[in-house]
Amino acid sequence: MNASLTSAARLFGAGLRALLVLTVVTGIVYPLVVTGVAQGLFPGRANGSEVTADGGRVVGSSLIGQTYDLPLKDGQQTPEPDLRWFQGRPRNGLGTNTVNTRYDLILSGATNRAADDAELVRWVQEAKTAVVEDNSVPGHPVKPSDVPADAVTSSGSGLDPHISPEYAGLQVRRVAERNGLPVARVQRLVDTHTTSRTLGFIGEPRVNVLELNIALADLKGGTAGR
Predict the structure, then answer these.
(1) Helix, strand, or coil here: 123?
(2) How many angstroms separate the first and last alpha carbons of the chain?
(3) Among 61, 111, 200, 212, who pairs with 93 as Cys (CB 3.0-4.6 Å)?
């Protein structure tokens, strides 16, 4: 009996020591080392790839898209896009939440719907109609065939901060007209903020909407980002 108790005590003591050692190594030492290395080598990425404007004020992250909408009117449920700014991709597929009521972007997810899903087809058709109407300016109507896919579909995560150069280019005349700017100046902003394929062959050319709108705000003396 005493031998059994002694053996059990030794096993308990060994298990407790292992628990304490692993807790210190994996719960304290490892996180501190990883955090220190990340802060030393990649401080921007480690801190959320924050984007600053207006003298250092954080206005968003270069990794997460955000909305550019008008304030809700009395009784209005769905905000209207603020057409002075470049708009990002649709956010269908994201649920609502009570933690972040200003943006739905705290939740990530795709629609997970088939291409012939009736509701998805309706979303795409409505989005295409809105893109055509919003971006048609006098003398330069937008045709439905001009609307790129990323203008009417959400990304796999729903958080994509980028749009295609084609979608950005489609918005140039509308943005220029709404802000009283020359079209050529606004187009240069898009060209300047177009990122090529990673390593020349991975992914597609893209434009970060937040960074583009910050440049637009600097051009016209306004404020972009949240």
Answers:
(1) helix
(2) 70
(3) 111
